[in-house]
Each structure stands twice: as C-alpha cells, then as structure tokens.
Amino acid sequence: MLNVNDFSKKYRNNKNYSARHICFSVSAGEVVGLVGSNGAGKSTIIKSIIGVLPFSEGTIQVGGYDIVKQPEKAKKLIGYVPDDHSVYEKLTGREYINYIGSLYGATVAQKKFVTDDLAVRFAISHALDTQIAGYSHGMRQKICILGALVHKPKLWILDEPMVGLDYQTMALLCDYIRGYADDEHSVLFSSHNLEVVKKTCDKVIFIKSGEVAGIVDLKAQSDFDLNGYYTKLNGGKLDA
Prior knowledge:
Blueprint: E1 2-9, E2 19-26, E3 31-35, H1 42-49, E4 57-62, E5 65-66, H2 71-75, E6 78-81, H3 93-103, H4 108-121, H5 137-149, E7 155-159, H6 167-182, E8 186-190, H7 194-200, E9 203-208, E10 211-217, H8 226-233
Parallel strand pairs: 3-8, 3-9, 6-7, 7-8
Antiparallel strand pairs: 1-2, 1-4, 4-5, 9-10
C-alpha cells in the first residue's frame, strides 16, 4: 500500500538533509511504527508521504500512485491525523466530519458510521453539535481521528496520536488501530510511547538523524527489547 523508495528531503537554505535515503513499505493488514527522538525526521517523512512537503529525491507511492505525479489519486487513499490537531474551530464536530467526508467523497453511510458509532466509542458524541473552538486538547485529538477515518482510507497515518489522550482512550485507539489493520488496511504512526508501539505494531522503523537506523519485525521477534535498543541507539538516553 505504501512504498517509500530512496526518499530524501532537504529544506531550503539548510545544508543538511532532514531525511536521507529513506526506504520502507507498509503492506495491507500491517501496522508500522516510526520511532525516533525529537528532531529525528519522523514528521518530515510523514508530511512528505501525505504530500504536504515537496521533495525531489526518491519516490513515494500510495496504492501504486506516485504522491508527486498523481497526488489527487494518492491522497484520496490516505487518512491523516496531524500532531498539532489542526481543525476548523468555527465548525461543530459534526460539521467538521461531514465537511472532511465530502472532500474525500465519503458516502452518507460512512459519515453516519463515524457520527453514530465511532463518536460513541471515543466518547465524543455529546460534543458533536458544539463548536470545536470549545473542545479540550483531548477532544480535538478525537475529532481529528474521526475526521481521518470518515472515508475509510486504505492508508491511515497518525503523527504522535497518543499525545493528550487519557489512558482509556489510548487503549481504545490502540485496539482500533489493530482492528483497522486486520481488516486489510494499512496503518503508519509515529510515537515516543514504546509500550504502545510494542503492543500495536507489526514492524518498527527506527529513525536517527534523518536516516533509517534499523527496522525490526515484531511478528518475527515478539520478545525484542525495544526500550533497550532505543536507549542504545540514542547513546544511553531513553528520549533525546
């Protein structure tokens, strides 16, 4: 579903690469985690995959569509949850979901599933008809998650999705991510929470200084010491 091949990204007026020679894939039915310290390049990689950041080195394909050459077709397959919870604050939660759904061509049934089912599961149904401007941090995160799922994307991408969520919602989201992938969808998410990564992911990609420092298949190595590996990778620091 997702293929990143020799992707590199350098920002203007910056002599160093923020991401360099990145190669990895995410298959249907697979959950892949991006792990790395702050500034390692995770968000640069994700924002390039979704087509927000331009790049000229390497290729990124979503469902066989090139994100640079066929951006509209590629982006229609993606559902994205940003790390800054960007939303239209003057809309109500329901209006936001319907608006995002319309942009992606979601059916009436798909929109109804999100507002009538997912909103209840994520305990936000009571706020759907109030303005997002009055939402708490956690509620904004929830509405971003629902908006990203309204068109049932083939590739669901989440950038630090657990930040600001209570333990119960984190557990619910982990279970939903796993179930979503088991339904032959693909999920890619970045996180500093190694416990969540260990519980949820099939594969983990470690990013350091803009490069792939290691890829671990957790299905093949279920007892792999993520904490130990990550600490060693960052010079003895659990989070740099």
